[in-house]
Design brief:
Spore Coat Polysaccharide Biosynthesis Protein SpsA, Chain A; 9 helices; alpha/beta; 39% helix
Protein backbone atom coordinates (compact mmCIF):
# COMPACT_ATOMS: atom_id res chain seq x y z
CA UNK A 1 0.00 0.00 0.00
CA UNK A 2 1.13 3.57 -0.66
CA UNK A 3 2.42 5.63 2.25
CA UNK A 4 -0.44 7.91 1.30
CA UNK A 5 -3.46 5.59 1.09
CA UNK A 6 -6.52 6.77 -0.76
CA UNK A 7 -9.34 7.91 1.52
CA UNK A 8 -12.95 7.64 0.32
CA UNK A 9 -15.49 10.04 1.81
CA UNK A 10 -19.16 9.32 1.09
CA UNK A 11 -21.79 12.02 1.57
CA UNK A 12 -25.48 11.05 1.49
CA UNK A 13 -27.73 14.03 0.79
CA UNK A 14 -31.35 14.96 0.23
CA UNK A 15 -32.63 18.53 0.05
CA UNK A 16 -29.73 19.92 2.07
CA UNK A 17 -28.69 22.72 -0.29
CA UNK A 18 -28.47 25.09 2.67
CA UNK A 19 -25.51 23.13 4.07
CA UNK A 20 -24.21 20.96 1.23
CA UNK A 21 -21.66 23.41 -0.14
CA UNK A 22 -20.07 23.88 3.29
CA UNK A 23 -19.78 20.11 3.59
CA UNK A 24 -18.09 19.78 0.20
CA UNK A 25 -15.73 22.68 0.92
CA UNK A 26 -14.69 21.13 4.24
CA UNK A 27 -13.63 17.98 2.39
CA UNK A 28 -11.80 19.91 -0.33
CA UNK A 29 -9.90 21.94 2.29
CA UNK A 30 -8.31 18.91 3.91
CA UNK A 31 -4.56 19.08 4.47
CA UNK A 32 -4.35 15.48 3.29
CA UNK A 33 -4.27 15.40 -0.49
CA UNK A 34 -5.09 11.83 -1.57
CA UNK A 35 -8.83 11.38 -1.25
CA UNK A 36 -11.99 10.98 -3.28
CA UNK A 37 -15.35 12.49 -2.41
CA UNK A 38 -18.51 10.68 -3.46
CA UNK A 39 -21.94 12.32 -3.10
CA UNK A 40 -25.14 10.30 -3.36
CA UNK A 41 -28.14 12.59 -3.61
CA UNK A 42 -31.65 11.21 -3.27
CA UNK A 43 -33.24 13.33 -5.99
CA UNK A 44 -33.19 16.75 -4.34
CA UNK A 45 -35.37 19.58 -5.64
CA UNK A 46 -33.94 22.44 -3.54
CA UNK A 47 -30.89 23.57 -5.52
CA UNK A 48 -28.58 20.76 -4.45
CA UNK A 49 -28.08 19.64 -8.05
CA UNK A 50 -26.73 23.06 -9.01
CA UNK A 51 -24.20 22.81 -6.16
CA UNK A 52 -23.12 19.33 -7.25
CA UNK A 53 -22.73 20.53 -10.83
CA UNK A 54 -20.59 23.43 -9.58
CA UNK A 55 -18.18 20.99 -7.91
CA UNK A 56 -18.42 18.29 -10.58
CA UNK A 57 -14.70 18.52 -11.45
CA UNK A 58 -13.70 18.05 -7.80
CA UNK A 59 -16.02 15.18 -6.92
CA UNK A 60 -14.93 11.65 -7.78
CA UNK A 61 -18.55 10.65 -8.38
CA UNK A 62 -22.00 12.02 -7.76
CA UNK A 63 -25.51 11.06 -8.69
CA UNK A 64 -28.97 12.40 -7.97
CA UNK A 65 -31.73 9.84 -8.12
CA UNK A 66 -34.45 8.46 -5.85
CA UNK A 67 -33.19 6.04 -3.23
CA UNK A 68 -34.46 4.27 -0.12
CA UNK A 69 -33.07 6.82 2.31
CA UNK A 70 -29.80 7.72 4.01
CA UNK A 71 -28.61 4.19 4.74
CA UNK A 72 -29.22 3.10 1.17
CA UNK A 73 -27.37 6.18 -0.12
CA UNK A 74 -24.36 5.46 2.09
CA UNK A 75 -24.20 1.85 0.92
CA UNK A 76 -24.43 3.00 -2.71
CA UNK A 77 -21.58 5.41 -2.10
CA UNK A 78 -19.27 2.84 -0.55
CA UNK A 79 -20.02 0.48 -3.43
CA UNK A 80 -18.35 3.12 -5.64
CA UNK A 81 -15.43 3.75 -3.27
CA UNK A 82 -11.86 2.84 -4.17
CA UNK A 83 -10.12 3.93 -0.97
CA UNK A 84 -8.15 1.96 1.60
CA UNK A 85 -9.69 4.11 4.35
CA UNK A 86 -13.40 4.99 4.49
CA UNK A 87 -15.66 7.52 6.18
CA UNK A 88 -18.99 9.18 5.62
CA UNK A 89 -19.87 12.79 6.21
CA UNK A 90 -23.52 13.80 6.18
CA UNK A 91 -24.48 16.77 4.02
CA UNK A 92 -25.10 19.07 6.97
CA UNK A 93 -21.83 18.27 8.80
CA UNK A 94 -18.26 19.44 8.19
CA UNK A 95 -14.65 18.38 8.74
CA UNK A 96 -11.88 20.32 10.40
CA UNK A 97 -8.96 20.72 7.94
CA UNK A 98 -6.60 18.28 9.70
CA UNK A 99 -9.11 15.46 10.27
CA UNK A 100 -8.16 13.21 7.37
CA UNK A 101 -4.40 13.71 7.78
CA UNK A 102 -4.42 12.83 11.47
CA UNK A 103 -6.65 9.79 10.94
CA UNK A 104 -4.45 8.46 8.14
CA UNK A 105 -1.26 9.10 10.09
CA UNK A 106 -2.57 7.14 13.07
CA UNK A 107 -3.93 4.23 11.05
CA UNK A 108 -0.69 3.95 9.06
CA UNK A 109 1.36 3.88 12.28
CA UNK A 110 -0.95 1.45 14.09
CA UNK A 111 -1.89 -1.41 11.79
CA UNK A 112 -3.73 -3.26 14.56
CA UNK A 113 -6.33 -0.47 14.81
CA UNK A 114 -9.33 -0.87 12.53
CA UNK A 115 -11.21 2.32 13.34
CA UNK A 116 -9.99 5.66 14.71
CA UNK A 117 -12.11 8.61 15.77
CA UNK A 118 -11.68 12.06 17.24
CA UNK A 119 -13.93 14.68 18.77
CA UNK A 120 -16.82 16.53 17.16
CA UNK A 121 -18.32 19.88 18.01
CA UNK A 122 -22.04 20.46 17.95
CA UNK A 123 -22.74 23.42 15.66
CA UNK A 124 -25.94 25.28 14.86
CA UNK A 125 -27.43 26.13 11.47
CA UNK A 126 -25.07 29.12 11.17
CA UNK A 127 -22.00 27.01 11.94
CA UNK A 128 -21.48 28.38 15.46
CA UNK A 129 -20.20 25.93 18.08
CA UNK A 130 -22.89 25.19 20.66
CA UNK A 131 -21.44 22.15 22.43
CA UNK A 132 -19.26 19.07 22.18
CA UNK A 133 -20.15 15.45 21.40
CA UNK A 134 -19.23 13.26 24.42
CA UNK A 135 -16.53 11.26 22.64
CA UNK A 136 -14.48 8.83 24.71
CA UNK A 137 -12.60 5.57 24.37
CA UNK A 138 -14.89 2.58 23.98
CA UNK A 139 -14.57 -1.02 22.82
CA UNK A 140 -16.70 -3.98 21.83
CA UNK A 141 -17.79 -4.83 25.37
CA UNK A 142 -18.69 -1.25 26.23
CA UNK A 143 -20.43 -0.68 22.90
CA UNK A 144 -22.60 -3.71 23.59
CA UNK A 145 -23.46 -2.11 26.94
CA UNK A 146 -24.60 1.09 25.26
CA UNK A 147 -21.50 3.20 25.86
CA UNK A 148 -21.11 4.42 22.30
CA UNK A 149 -19.09 7.66 22.45
CA UNK A 150 -18.09 7.50 18.75
CA UNK A 151 -19.02 10.62 16.75
CA UNK A 152 -19.80 9.28 13.28
CA UNK A 153 -18.60 12.52 11.64
CA UNK A 154 -15.11 12.03 13.12
CA UNK A 155 -14.66 8.30 12.42
CA UNK A 156 -12.40 6.65 9.83
CA UNK A 157 -11.95 2.91 9.28
CA UNK A 158 -10.18 0.42 7.03
CA UNK A 159 -11.87 -0.61 3.81
CA UNK A 160 -10.71 -4.22 4.20
CA UNK A 161 -12.79 -4.44 7.38
CA UNK A 162 -15.81 -2.87 5.67
CA UNK A 163 -15.62 -5.65 3.11
CA UNK A 164 -15.92 -8.14 5.99
CA UNK A 165 -18.74 -6.52 7.96
CA UNK A 166 -20.58 -4.22 5.53
CA UNK A 167 -22.83 -3.00 4.15
CA UNK A 168 -24.97 -1.04 6.60
CA UNK A 169 -28.24 -2.66 7.61
CA UNK A 170 -30.84 -1.11 5.25
CA UNK A 171 -33.55 -1.56 7.88
CA UNK A 172 -31.84 0.95 10.18
CA UNK A 173 -32.72 4.64 9.97
CA UNK A 174 -30.96 6.00 13.06
CA UNK A 175 -28.48 3.49 14.50
CA UNK A 176 -26.71 2.23 11.38
CA UNK A 177 -23.48 3.83 12.62
CA UNK A 178 -23.74 2.14 16.04
CA UNK A 179 -24.36 -1.18 14.30
CA UNK A 180 -21.22 -0.62 12.20
CA UNK A 181 -19.09 0.28 15.24
CA UNK A 182 -20.20 -2.93 16.96
CA UNK A 183 -19.35 -5.03 13.91
CA UNK A 184 -15.94 -3.38 13.49
CA UNK A 185 -15.07 -3.55 17.19
CA UNK A 186 -15.89 -7.26 17.22
CA UNK A 187 -13.09 -8.02 14.73
CA UNK A 188 -10.60 -5.20 15.37
CA UNK A 189 -9.44 -2.61 17.88
CA UNK A 190 -10.87 0.90 17.83
CA UNK A 191 -9.13 4.01 19.12
CA UNK A 192 -10.18 7.47 20.30
CA UNK A 193 -7.77 10.36 19.72
CA UNK A 194 -8.68 13.58 21.58
CA UNK A 195 -8.91 16.56 19.25
CA UNK A 196 -11.71 18.06 17.15
CA UNK A 197 -11.96 16.47 13.71
CA UNK A 198 -15.53 17.30 12.71
CA UNK A 199 -18.62 19.38 13.33
CA UNK A 200 -22.01 17.78 13.94
CA UNK A 201 -24.77 20.19 12.90
CA UNK A 202 -27.92 20.33 15.00
CA UNK A 203 -30.79 22.22 13.42
CA UNK A 204 -34.56 22.16 13.29
CA UNK A 205 -34.71 19.56 10.53
CA UNK A 206 -31.99 17.32 11.98
CA UNK A 207 -33.24 13.80 12.54
CA UNK A 208 -30.83 13.32 15.46
CA UNK A 209 -32.20 16.24 17.47
CA UNK A 210 -34.28 13.78 19.51
CA UNK A 211 -32.25 12.05 22.24
CA UNK A 212 -34.08 8.71 22.10
CA UNK A 213 -34.14 8.33 18.30
CA UNK A 214 -31.47 5.63 17.91
CA UNK A 215 -32.07 3.55 21.02
CA UNK A 216 -34.80 1.19 19.77
CA UNK A 217 -32.52 0.21 16.87
CA UNK A 218 -29.56 -0.17 19.23
CA UNK A 219 -31.62 -2.68 21.16
CA UNK A 220 -32.22 -4.57 17.92
CA UNK A 221 -28.43 -4.93 17.57
CA UNK A 222 -28.22 -6.04 21.20
CA UNK A 223 -30.83 -8.77 20.89
CA UNK A 224 -29.66 -9.79 17.40
CA UNK A 225 -26.23 -10.54 18.83
CA UNK A 226 -27.59 -12.61 21.71
CA UNK A 227 -27.91 -9.91 24.36
CA UNK A 228 -29.93 -10.39 27.52
CA UNK A 229 -32.84 -8.32 28.79
CA UNK A 230 -30.86 -7.94 32.01
CA UNK A 231 -28.06 -5.91 30.44
CA UNK A 232 -26.80 -2.33 30.95
CA UNK A 233 -27.91 -1.23 27.47
CA UNK A 234 -31.51 -2.21 28.21
CA UNK A 235 -31.47 -0.28 31.50
CA UNK A 236 -29.97 2.72 29.69
CA UNK A 237 -32.67 2.51 27.05
CA UNK A 238 -35.48 2.78 29.59
CA UNK A 239 -33.70 5.52 31.54
CA UNK A 240 -33.12 7.58 28.42
CA UNK A 241 -36.69 6.96 27.32
CA UNK A 242 -37.80 8.71 30.50
CA UNK A 243 -35.26 11.54 30.17
CA UNK A 244 -35.47 11.97 26.38
CA UNK A 245 -38.19 14.70 26.33
CA UNK A 246 -36.08 16.87 28.64
CA UNK A 247 -32.86 16.32 26.68
CA UNK A 248 -34.61 16.95 23.36
CA UNK A 249 -36.13 20.14 24.75
CA UNK A 250 -32.71 21.34 25.89
CA UNK A 251 -31.18 20.59 22.47
CA UNK A 252 -33.95 22.43 20.67
CA UNK A 253 -33.45 25.45 22.93
CA UNK A 254 -29.71 25.36 22.24
CA UNK A 255 -30.27 25.16 18.46
CA UNK A 256 -32.81 27.98 18.61
CA UNK A 257 -30.23 30.13 20.37
Amino acid sequence: MSRHPLVSIVTPSYNQAQYLEATIKSVMRQTYFRFEHIVIDGGSTDGSIEILEKYDHQLAYWVSEPDKGQTDAINKGFAKANGHILAWLNSDDTYEPHAMAQAVEYLEANRDIGLVYGDANFIDSAGEVIGRFPAAQTDYKRLREGYVHVPQQAAFWRAKLWRKVGPLDPDFYFAMDYDLWVRLAKISQIKYLPGVWANFRLHGDSKTIADDSAWPEMLKVHYRDGGSFFAPIVAKYYLRKVLAPLVTYQRRRRVAG
